[in-house]
Structures are given as structure tokens and as C-alpha cells.
Amino acid sequence: MNKLKATYIGLGYIGLPTAILTAKSGIETFGFDIDKIKVDKISRGDLLTKEPGLKDELKFVLNKGLLKVSSKIETASTYVVVVPTPLIGNNLPDVSIVKMAIKSIIPLLKEKDLIIIESTCPVLTTDKMKDFIFSNRPELKDLIYLAYCPERVLPGNILNELINNDRIIGGINNESSLKAKSFYENFVNGEIHITNARTAEMCKLTENSARDAQIAFANELSMICDEAKIDVWELINLANKHPRVNILNPGIGVGGHCIAVDPWFLVSEFPEEAKLIKYVRETNNYKTRWCVNKIISIADKYSKEKKSKPKIACMGLSYKPNVDDIRESPAIVIVNSLKNLGYDLLIVEPNLEDINTYNLNKIDTVLINADILVWLVAHDEFKNIELSNNIIEIDLCGIRKN
Q1: Has 258 been annotated as catalytic?
Q2: Closest C-alpha to 290, from 248, 333, 256
Q3: 366 Ramachandran zone, left/alpha/beta (phi>0; psi -120 to 50)
Q4: 399 by DSSP, 3-state: which?
Q5: Looking at 121, 149, 258, 291, which residue is catalytic?
Q6: Chain segment 270-312, per-residue pLDDT in tens
Q7: Which residues are CB-neighbours of 224 under 8 A, at least 6 positions away?
């Protein structure tokens, strides 16, 4: 019996933490990424993210020789594909990187190998990858295992959630599902649920589309309340006193690589059926534009009254509080929109040391120099800050309501 070996293809936000946990479980683990700079950085124990606890865990598995990383793929008995599936023109999902990852391991495959796809994918992607593999290696038909297992973690708590959250596994057949379940049982304490590949793919998209819809209701409600001169946070607090109502708090839109992206996978594949899902996506995107217009309206009023352009402090760039993740961040959209219109901006993001396209400011500097201060993200560092009476405050994330 061959010793279990796992190769992770993709060392990003999910691939690297999962590879670390796999290595800690005693499985010989390799991490592969085409980005040589990323590989070199990881091999030194450095990270591209400030995910809590991850750096210490990485150094542990590297120092113990439990994890090796390289820009060359290692032969294994289990291959886990954790690569991006971005949106391209007209919000269409691009699975070409998944296909490239599968293509890279096809020459390495042997009988009884297991392939797991974790990347978010349109429905039927796993079946298409199966056909792609067997068209290139027909002698392996029915002799290898292939399954889909989406991640469901929250940045800022990734390691804990990878271990303790339930997992959904859908194989191309029951044997593949069970084989993949056996692999995840090495480091997952949550319950592992078995289904087929297309249902597992759909489950991931459904979860994030449902959350998108809940956020859209709150965001739409906030715009209605602004027009009606009603405090939306007070309203939601009162409405939630109903035993069967649980409205979320509104924000400046929706960000992150999952909720802001995954619903488009369903819209692109099922345009006639996914009408509500499409409207939800459009509503949350519109809320971000609405926030831009709100800031512009107040800034222009300031300019007319003061006969000068205001310095606008933009508080927060990440897509959610207390993380350094700026993927699909609506705060970035707002800042870029204001920047392109020529507004004088002071940008604060306490979770980032630097970012290429922006000059970041300290909180104290902003409090002295800003004319208008816009709360975009409710970071802990922003709570209980006292502002002078001269600063105009725009609270778009409810930080003053908590």
C-alpha cells in the first residue's frame, strides 16, 4: 500500500492553510504555485496575508519538514486543486485556470489516485474535468477518483473554520465521494456530507447567493430609509424584535471573493431562471454607487459653502472589518471613484502596511487634516474615536450605531 501523499495546486487564501493542516495531520504534503515569488516567500515562512495564526503554523510545518513548497508539481496520490475562478467580460466565470491545473497533473496520474477540486466552479465543471482527463488518459477510466469539495470559511478565522466547519463532498461516483471523505477526515472535525458532484457545486453557489440576497435586502432598506429620513439601524433593531425576523445590517455593498462573485456563476448558466439572483447582485453593486453619490453630494455642498474643496478621509479599504483582504472590496470602488473625480483623499487602512496604488495615512493625521470623514469599514481601530466638531461625518457602515 502506497503512503498517502498530497499535492496542493494553488497556494492562495485557501490552498496554503489547507495544505498546512494536511501536513500537520501527518500526510506528506507538497504545495505548488506558478507564482515563483509567492513560493519563495512561503518557503521562508512569510505570508501575503495577516490571517491570524497562519504564520506560526506555516513556520511549524516548514521547520518540521512536513510541508514542502515548489514551483514544480510533485507526484502524489491525492491532488487538490485550489486555484482562482475569476469573472471575465459580462460577469462570465472563467474556469480556464482550473482546466490548466488539471492538465498539469494529467501526465502524473496513476491508478487509484484521487483528484479533489475545491475552486468555486459552475455546475457540471467536475463532470467536464472528468471527460477532459479521460480523453487524455483513456486507460484510467473508472480507475481514478474525482470529487468536488468547496471551502466555506471566513477570512480572519480560516484555520478554525477549515477544521470545524461541516464539508460537502460530491464525487463523480460514490467511490470517489468516500475516497475524498477519507482524505478530509484526517484534519476536519466537522461533519462531512456526501452527495454528487453537481449538487456540491450548486451548494457552494447557493450558500453565497442566499447571503447575497440577505445583504441586498438590508442595503435596499438603507436607501429607502435615507430617502424617508429614518435611522435604518434603529429600524432594523426594532424589526428584529419580531421572533421570526432577522434582518442583517446594511453596508456599502458586498465584497470578498465569494459572495460578490459566486451568484454570477448561476446567472451566467441559468439566465432565464436566476432573475432574482441577478437583481440581488445588481442591488448590492448599486448600493456602492449610491454611497459614492452620497459622498459627492455632501462634498459638493461643502465646496459651495466653504469656497474650497474638502479633504475627504476614507476610513477602511478591506471588504469587511478587521481583515487585510481587499478582494472585490466595495470600499476600493468608492475610493477609486472619488479619486478619479479629483477629490483630495486621505486613506486609512489599519490592517495594511502599504498598498501600491494608495498612500495610507495614520488615524491621528486624518483627524487633524480631514474636513469630511467617511466610515467605510467598521474596523475595531475606528471605534470610539472622538471627532472634532469641524469634521463632517458620513457613517456608511453603522460604526456609530454599534
Answers
A1: yes
A2: 333
A3: alpha
A4: coil
A5: 258
A6: 999 999 999 999 999 999 999 999 999 999 999 999 999 999 9
A7: none
- Alpha helical stretches, state H, 137-274: 158-164, 174-184, 197-228, 232-239, 262-269
Q: Which three cell numbers stand for residue 273?
A: 431562471
Q: Tell me the three cell numbers of residue 292.
A: 459614492
Greatest Cα pair distance, the chain, in angstroms, is: 80
Element spanning 185, H or E:
none
Cβ-Cβ contacts under 8 Å for 105 (sequence gap 6 or more): 7, 9, 73, 79, 115
**Mean pLDDT score of the chain:** 95
How far apart (Å, rounded) are the C-alpha atoms in residues 234 and 252? 18
- Residues 379 and 268: their CA atoms lie apart, in Å, by 34
| pLDDT tier, 402 (very low <50, low <70, confident <90, very high otherwise) | low
The whole-angstrom distance between residue 235's C-alpha and the CA centroid of its chain comes to 29
Task: Please pick, among 24, 130, 179, 204, the residue that the annotation labels catalytic.
Answer: 204
User: What are the CB-based long-range contacts (under 8 Å, 24+) for 53-59?
Assistant: 53/159, 54/16, 54/17, 54/20, 54/158, 54/159, 57/17, 57/20, 57/21, 57/24, 57/159, 58/16, 58/20
5, 21, 33, 70 from 28: Cα distances, Å: 5, 11, 17, 14
Distance CA 15, CA 205 (A): 19
Could you tell me if 269 and 122 are in contact, meaning their C-beta atoms sit under 8 angstroms apart?
yes
Cell numbers linked to 225: 430609509
- Phi then psi dihedrals of residue 327, to 5 deg: -65, 130
Contact 192, 181 (CB under 8 A): yes
Residue 51 is classified by DSSP as -
Map grid coordinates 452527495 to a residue.
Answer: 195
**Does 203 participate in catalysis according to the annotation?**
no
Q: Among residues 310, 305, 316, 291, which one has the least CA distance to residue 391?
A: 310
pLDDT of residue 5: 96
7: β partners: 30, 79
